[in-house]
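pinging the channel bc i need a second pair of eyes. not urgent but kinda urgent?? the chain im working w is below, pasted from the shared doc
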Amino acid sequence: MPAGPIAVLAGAGQLPIQLVNHLERTGQEVRVLTFRGFAEAELQRRAHATVDLLDLKTIMSTLEGWRPQAVSLVGAVRRPGFSALLSAYSLLRNMHEVKEVITRGDDQVLRGAVMLLEERGHRVVGAHELAPDLVAARTLSGTRKPGADDHEAIALGLDLLKSLSAFDIGQGAVIARRHVLAIEGPEGTDRMMRRVMKMRQSWFGLRRREEGGVLIKAAKRGQDLRVDMPTIGPRTIVEAAKAGLSGIAIGAGSTFVLEQEKTLLTADRLGLFLIAVDLPWMESSLA
């Protein structure tokens, strides 16, 4: 691997923190650039630079000064509006090309960001390449096991997510037996499960409907895992329990599990199963 630090461009959530911790713990030289208003306070205090999300000139000049061996885009950010994206990207790209990218959905915007970095000679790598221990292994499993209804729900959920891949929407769905209770939208997994919880309450919140169901969380077909990989953690388990679910199934080899030991213990404590399943549409990209 060439000389130079690894540059972490950090958005919101715990994943950027865990990635930086891993790199430092393994003796890697790291430079952290946080996006103002997104990165967690803990990482902001450790950042070498903080910039606005669309300040592309400063981002590029900062990276030019660092001369990193690799760049990793990690953490969630809210997609800016069309006009803001167009103005920012057009500083570095032809306006017609920019319009083509940002009208095609969030995946294309992320790929556009990768394209800008690669055009300037940066090697873009995924957090899963830098910290493979954070990724769900095929053997991941808590003590609880899914039942027959759960396996049926998982199979239906995988078929659903595979079919929805082309539409550039969320990476998750909640299935109970053969009923689709919710599909993840821009609000994210936790809020999707809160919708399920509200659906299952009576008008006065005095009783719940029949519980059960599975959260299926998986990367989309053709998804660039370098910039957008599904992630779960202890909070995901808690939200699933509140929604009355039986458990969670995630894509093996293509899903981050934050605080893995705590996540598994939380699933056991709350009586949910947690398993990793193979995604047939991801096999070629993970080979």
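so Residues 148-164 form the longest helix (17 residues). and The two ends are 21 Å apart (CA to CA). — does that match what u expected or am i reading it wrong
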